[in-house]
Each structure stands twice: as structure tokens, then as C-alpha cells.
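Hey, sorry to bother you again with one of my protein questions. I've been puzzling over a protein and I'd love to understand its fold better. Take your time with it, there's no hurry, and the full record follows here:
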Amino acid sequence: MLLLQVIHKWLAFSLFFILSINAVRYEPNWKSIDSRPLPQWYDKAKVGIFLHWGVFSVPSFGSEWFWYDWQGYHRPNFVNYMKNNFRPDFTYEEFASKFWAEFYQPDKWAELFKKSGAKYVVLTSKHHEGYTMWPSKYSFQWNVMQTGPKRDLLGELAKSVRAQNLTFGVYHSLYEWYNPLYLKDKSNGFATNEFVRFKIRPEMEELVNVYKPDVVWSDGDWEPTDVYWNSTDFLAWLYNDSPVKDTVVVNDRWGKGTGCKHGGFWNCADRYNPGKLQGHKWENAMTIDNYSWGYRREMTINDVKTIHDLIYELAKTLAYGGNILINVGPTMEGTITPIFQERLLQLGDWLHVNGEAIYESNMWKYQNDTITKDLWYTERAGFVYGIVLQYNSKIEFGSIDYSSVNSVTLLGCNDKVEFIKSPNGHVIVVFPNLTPLSHAKVAYVFKFVLNQMNF
């Protein structure tokens, strides 16, 4: 018996030793960092929710850049807004005392995101104003526990999101507009990096170690290079030794010049939708409010994307191999305004019917149709899906040969779908009769079973 125990322990140690030797260790350089495979969950998920929430949600005017637009750029509309509504010596920091989040119900938020059809949620843990949405030890009391709601807003949402079996991630801004340490490094031409060493690096490790986000969405990188930010060293730690080393995904904003070049997935620029194949996994981070990421009280209905606009962005993004990250800005009270709720619920209704063309889908050999406008393609499990954004009684699929089609169905409809041959040899689908309440009539998805030799 003793001999067996010794043998078992020896075998266990040997296996551990072999695995340890063979385990990949990423070095702090871009060649090594960029060689890491993107965790599969991200590409399969396709749809995420982005949340821009912070002290900027209190003035809720213009955009989440309110502080800098007012005191950095000195934009007249922001200057006049403050002049007309606040005393002359009012400071931006005083807005934090009104950030109560008194109606914040993270469970309700998470239920909404689940109903929207999203698979992951990314919250601004800290925007360029420097205010942390968790009680960070490195925030100099500029955080939710010391100033404002007296609650761990980030931690509560992470728990609620995960309870809905959604993946939780964080946005994090590297730089801060008015942090003295950053301004000192900047005045030194970034030859010093006290801000990174004493603020940013420990702050980011704290964020990852405590909340274990599976997305680290970096921003605020564009003034100095990645060398100043010591980005590759952080990413090597994230990939090698952090509690999320096997599951975490990151974007490409890690220093001046890294966008669309380095990192896990690329988002390159805000509202990035290149309209062509990229050869690398990418993400379209976009907003339902066309003009702001944070909530604006002056927003009008004409500023808000329609559900048709939203599904168009979704279809075009997925056809070219991207994920879509859909942003809404919560209010300072901790609510999501009804128009944003409506759009997310409408999206969820559509995805409930048509999700098999979206989740875990791939790019097909054609992305959009050669003849019919607003017709996009995806492929999944050997089926081709045509996402049609405009209704017509007969739809010509110019990228599909009639001779290659075995059958056609319309997702969400049990009626037989007829198809005929076009004069040029393509397939024409005859739209089945639908009653107004029988289908999600924003956009339609036709599912094609093709001959494998023509796939």
C-alpha cells in the first residue's frame, strides 16, 4: 500500500513537471504577446454590452468627456453650461457628491442584458477622469466608496452578470486627464513613468486580482508609447500569472501606435466597422446614442439608432468576422433609460428568432451579396445564412447558384420556402406570407442547405 502511494505521488509529480515545462510562458515583447491564441469563448460570443458610467453621468451633458471639454478644450457650449447653471468656483470633483446611484439594481441590469441576447458585458471601471468604480486602494479616495454612492458598483455588477451566465469584463483608461503624476511624466517627455509605476500598474493588478474580468478593454493610450505604459510586461503577467490567464481577452489600445497592430482583438478606433476582411479578430465598439458613450440628458429620439440600424451594424460586423460591443450610458441614478432598454429588448427578440445565424458563426466565402443591397452572409455548422435587411416579395441571392441549393428555410417561420432559378443562374427566394405578429419583422434570415461541393 505504501509503495502504491509513493508511485502515485511520483507519477503526479512527473506529470506536473512535464506540464510545467511544456506550458507556454509569454515574454514581455509584442512578438511573444501577439502569439497567444485568442480564447475561443470570445469569437463564439459575437455580441456584448458596453457601459460608460462614472462621475460624467452626473452633469450628463455633451459626452463622457465633459470635464476636459469644459476645462481642457474650453468648448463654448460646455463653458456656458457651467456658467449658466453653477456657481463660479464650482469644481468637477463636486459632481461626485451627487453621484448617488440610488436606483441602481445590478440584478435588473443583468436581466436586461440577458434578454438582449448579449453574451458578455464590459463596464467602465475607470474613465479618463480617474474615478474608479470600485474601492481601489490606489485612487487617492477618488472612488465609489469614499466619494459618491458608498457602494462597490463594479463588484455588484460583476456578481449579477455572472449569475446570468454572462461573461464580465472591464474597460480601463490608462491615462487620467489631470492626475499630477501623469502630468509630471508628460512634462518630462515621458522619460519618467512614476504614474505607471505607482498608480496604473498596481491599480490594474488590483482590478484583475479582485474582480477577475475576462475582458480587459484598455483605452487612453494615445499620447505616449507602450514603452512608457510598460504594456508588454503587464500583458505577460496577465497571460502567465493572473487568475484569468487562460480566459482573458484584451484589445489593441496599449500605447501610441499599437492600435490595429498588437493585442488580442483589434478595435482600432471607436465605432470601427471596416467593411472588409481584416485577417485578424476585431470588434466594433459602437453606441446606440450616435453622439455619445455616456448618457446625455439633451439626447433626442433622432440621436438614437433604430433597431433596423442596430441589426444592420450587427449583420455587417459579423459578415466580416467581427464582434459587436453595443454601448449604452446609464444615468447618474443608476438606471438605463427606457429608449435604450427598448433597443436592447428589440435586439433580444430578434436574436431569439435568428440567433443560430449569429452565435458561433463564421465568415462565409462571400460577405455581402453581389446583386441585392443590404444582404449579408454568415456560415455555421455547414449552413449558409442570408441576413436580409429589406423586405421584398422575391429576393435574389446573387452569391448563391441555384444548382447548389438543396433547401431553404426562413428562421422563425414554419411555412415552406419556395425558390426558383434566376435568368443568370442564381437563386430567387419567394418570401412566404407572414402575419404582422408571426415574425420579428426587422430583418429576415434565410437558411440555405447547399451541396458541399459548392459550399
Notes: The two ends are 60 Å apart (CA to CA). The chain has two domains: 30-357, 375-454. Residues 6 and 389 are 67 Å apart (CA to CA). Confidence is low (pLDDT under 50) at residues 1-11, 13-22.
